[in-house]
């Protein structure tokens, strides 16, 4: 039972009591409507290697999925291991592996599944059996789901890709791609044989009676195909060699198929098998996008006349067609488009908004900037609770954007759903209010595992992101590696990015939900972008910052002093006799206390110096240029290849210090993500003094709370001037990582560290302990969908725009302090700050009685007023 459902128990109990008192109670349907929201909430992530016979050692990938008629068995294609997987999702919050069906049991070990589609008691497994690009072949295997027995194999005329089944169950359509050889010639078209579409007539209940027919998209012979006039006149690129990619069928049994490499769409009437229309997907001019892989998040580039080259396609209300414009060898418009199928004209185009969405949420894959950027590939359209939704997957940004489609020609952005790497298959399951996302990338040596992620519809708020920038006042960010309080503004923080990008210092407003990155300044050296790997930052009382630079070699590790404008003004190398043997994993955090002659810089190394069994904590006094060393004992790392290390250090109000200690593990293997505290001895020693540490907070439950794959790099920790403890994860610049940034408020400094010393400023409104944002506290403002930006959209329709705050002044400049509401209430214990669930919902019974009474009174008053008119 999810949190919204548990909360509903309290409301339902209140409704029953109200009914017993003679007041009309809410019906179950009314209760669901009153309590359900229109957001999707991630409830589970299942790494599919767990369903493979070889387990963790398996190289496996979920690509396209389907679901049984009862919605409880999820079936996915795994081309990488040449298998079809089965999952029990009776409890979607806890999927259970049901094993796999290897294709060698159906045909040959070389067979490759390209798609799956459930139909009654059966699942169609679409199989590529091609010997070569020049001699493509394939088949559809009809498999009984209950016992996974092969019922029938149907030969196809070429190499298949996707499959779709009509809503009335009368037809199945298969795209016969006959894909090109990218290593032949220039890798482009034409390359015979041409592709086509095959239609399976599902006549009768048993597969033996089903017939298959072909809809040719060319004339001539397979060796020398000729273009059809309808494709040529439509402006289809290289019409003599169409390569069908993705098929979709509307309620009128009209098939739409994308010709991705040909940059076109073809419509086919399934009953007759006739082509009724063809149109070019056209091209788009793009501006304000990042087009160069240069280590900078720089959305100032532009591209002209870019072919859309659509991949996935979906019908909207049987008239409009939405396409995910992934691109191929000539193009890719980095967004999606909605076409009017009656005219073939563009009804709406995303322009640069899809790319800006990724930039604003830390999900832009900068290493793909020179290619196809976010690379939108997967797409689906479905109705939940009477409302149409569009889902668009970013293959490289690792997210699915959700849009509300009350007006198909003006989609409204609702939320982003974080996934694991390479989301492709999007499977709405509206009968169970579920959404399944299949992510195909599997690189075990990098901690990246293919997974099925399940989301539940009905949450009252967006769970992700937990930190973002305003899409209308874009501040691109990523790879946040350190946090610091802002001494001038108690509810604001500074953050720094590491060497994944040119270093920048970010300003964060923690009173916003999600937390808002308002502005950033570049870190410069001699007027040019600094070449630094900044792993920690600390704002100085005297203005500017100290930062920790982790060198590639030990002697390159340095403490960096930076002024308010971001310019490096001093570098302090660490003592060579200590760090010379470090090859990497050096400086990871920095803190500062005092000012003037009393200023001290406290810093942490990540790993042990060779030959030592402790990690060094250092203290540097700028006035005397002296170093003092302390030893910190790490928790045992275990027997695998993982290791434990420090990721951050920050000062506490009572004079103690806190560090992040974490392991190298990711996802389901993660064991240690924690905050420890210790006190530095007042008397310096010539020897390395071993510190006594104590656990302050286990952060692993916080990282696991939103049911994704647990992030490895818990990197930033600080205490705001308002007394709240914040942490942030480094998303590794969406490079061999999911890219999800977790920013979380762990609670007050007193709750986390047990210190009674508090800042004089009143505490800020606190987020929940976990980064979960889907449930809004009673009486607070509900989250609203963020609008698609209009100023830079280049869209046919202009969605509405909300006001955005202006950028904050540069770090260290004079800034007015935000107002705060003083309160005499003591800080709530952690348990009371969690969302009201289960038994805690019983307080809603008397509240329900009161509210019901007020509602009845108001209704009676309104009724009397109407009668008196």
From TrEMBL:
Keywords: Membrane, Signal, Transmembrane, Transmembrane helix. Residues 1-29 form the signal peptide. InterPro entries: Mesenchyme-surface_protein, Phytase-like_dom, Quino_amine_DH_bsu, WD40/YVTN_repeat-like_dom_sf. The keyword Hydrolase does not apply. The chain crosses the membrane at residues 841-860. The keyword Transmembrane applies. It comes from the Bacteria. Gene3D superfamilies: YVTN repeat-like/Quinoprotein amine dehydrogenase. This is Esterase-like activity of phytase family protein. It comes from Glutamicibacter bergerei. The lineage of its organism: Bacteria, Bacillati, Actinomycetota, Actinomycetes, Micrococcales.
